[in-house]
Design a protein that fits this description.
InterPro entries: Acyl_CoA_acyltransferase, GNAT_dom. Pfam families: Acetyltransf_1. This protein is α+β, with helices and mostly antiparallel strands. It contains five helices and six strands; from the N terminus they run ααβαβαββββα.
């Protein structure tokens, strides 16, 4: 946990994004049997849509393996801060001496949500609100 807290502090996301609020992804896991099937990309896109629905202008996340970092980059996230596992030393000992093939760092990655995505959500919300007003839901 100390590694992730250090990464968050080093990033200083509020200043980097230029906003006081942003959606932060702390854990993104996909079961091995569902990897390479688009599930991780769909989850990241769902997180972005959640940020849009919450009217947030930025989203960031902690990505601790090479595969999730590549997926985040493909989804439009940029590297904001990184700690190489080989350089994470506590009490003169490397903590992660073998993090696995392709897993070289923990990274904080983020993206600003473009105004056009936010305005698309506003238009959809107002259309949804109008349709809800015309036909109220009645529970029986």
């Amino acid at each position: 946990m100390h590694l992730l807290n250090t990464l968050l502090k080093r990033t200083n996301a509020h200043e980097t994004f230029g906003h006081q609020e942003y959606l932060c992804i702390y854990v993104l896991c996909v079961h091995p049997s569902y990897r390479e099937k688009g599930v991780e990309t769909a989850l990241l896109n769902a997180c972005v849509q959640l940020a849009v629905a919450l009217k947030l202008t930025a989203i960031g996340g902690l990505f601790t393996c090479g595969a999730s970092q590549a997926t985040a980059q493909d989804t439009g996230f940029s590297l904001l801060s990184e700690i190489r596992y080989s350089q994470w030393v506590i009490n003169d000992r490397i903590v992660f001496d073998d993090p696995g093939k392709g897993n070289y760092s923990a990274a904080f990655m983020g993206k600003l949500i473009p105004p056009e995505e936010r305005s698309d959500q506003d238009e959809t919300s107002s259309l949804d609100s109008a349709s809800k007003q015309e036909s109220p839901i009645v529970w029986k």
